[in-house]
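Entry:
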Amino acid sequence: MVQAKKICNVWLLVLWFVAALVPALSHAQESPQAPPPAPAVTAPAPAAPAAAPAPQPKLDKGDTAWMLTSSALVLMMTIPGLFLFYGGLVRSKNALGTIMHSFIIVAVITIQWALWGYSLAFGPDVGGIIGSLAWFGLNGVGAEPNADYAATIPHGAFMIYQMMFAIITPALITGAFAERVKFGSFLVFIVLWATFIYDPLAHWVWGVKGWLREMGALDFAGGTVVHISSGASALVAAIMFGRRIGYGQEAMPPHNLPFSVIGAGLLWVGWFGFNAGSALAADGLATSAFVATHIATAAAALSWMAMDWIFRGKPTVLGAASGAVAGLVAITPGSGFVGPMSAIWIGIGGGVLCSIACSLKPRLGYDDSLDVVGVHGVGGTWGALATGLFASKLINPAGNDGLFFGNPGQLGTQFVSVAATWILAVVGTMILLSIVKAIMGLRVADDEERMGLDLSQHNERAYE
């Protein structure tokens, strides 16, 4: 007991030291330096030459190769990364059913995105709210670059990269209703959610003339579009589906924790395509996002592990893996706008806040099977707001400075984007699930739930 208390005290001292050190380091490394005094002007300056015309879009092989690689990395996040992470956390009788959710979403959203999803998200603007159907069926989306989005890669490369984001986002939600959803209802809901929530939100934040983009909201790789939207929708889904049979009365531990840790590792690696790839070029900004992503993830894994050690008595493998995912979520919106010292602070915040949020779930009474709300909803919200604190134009001149670098208005803009995302996701998901429930029902029958989704929905067993 004495030794455990000493270890806890050491961790508390380490966390205090890092927390105290980071703001100073952040300011020292990332704050703009005062410019040297200008020399005295002794003669009128010559007239400035006429501005050169904007360069024409030109394909770059290096950028194209990086973006195709990043697309594959993001796909790896869903299959096999997410399905192993989620699949290991459920009971053995639901392992295949949970894996199937992520796997089949790849097929479903691929077709939805190719037919109408991409055009709604990134097509020519309609009122700042949605894209038109001008690119329906990928009409006009080919080998030539689109200067509005990425001038050095084929338009088709940008489309396929964004498709991978559209795939993983609804897959994240499935953790909220794992072990009790009807497969047919799940398929219908996913198509509706992608069309009426993800696609408009992507246009608001990333589409040319989208209203949040025009307002100046910063979301480098999906803190609002991917993580807050999925986390907020997961909260509604968990409440509307209701608790699993036996929840709170019987233990429901992960059936294969090594699966989940392998999945978390694949998510960590794939996330470099998610965040660094969002630079849309193989350049210095991609490098900066890569570095920030890795550092924040490490800080979050350590801080969540420390929370377990302090409050639960032992450092847990699941806590370290969950902390890594929380750090990846938290750094996503700011990865292309913050420096490495700020990334440490964002990672620590993500690990601590998400750990607290997940520990409060039993007290709040909802059954979010795999903690989508606590990790993605809370982590995405913290990351989006932290971008308004730590963003620096020294890191990305195309962005903006945050509160800690002299621009408090950016934090207000980030708050608006967070609130708008929560409102759209909560209200939209409630409407869509109500429609599906009225027509098809949401949950499997009680006897089917007790049997497990593997047998009741797919007539298969993960293990003999």
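Residues 409-439 form the longest helix (31 residues).
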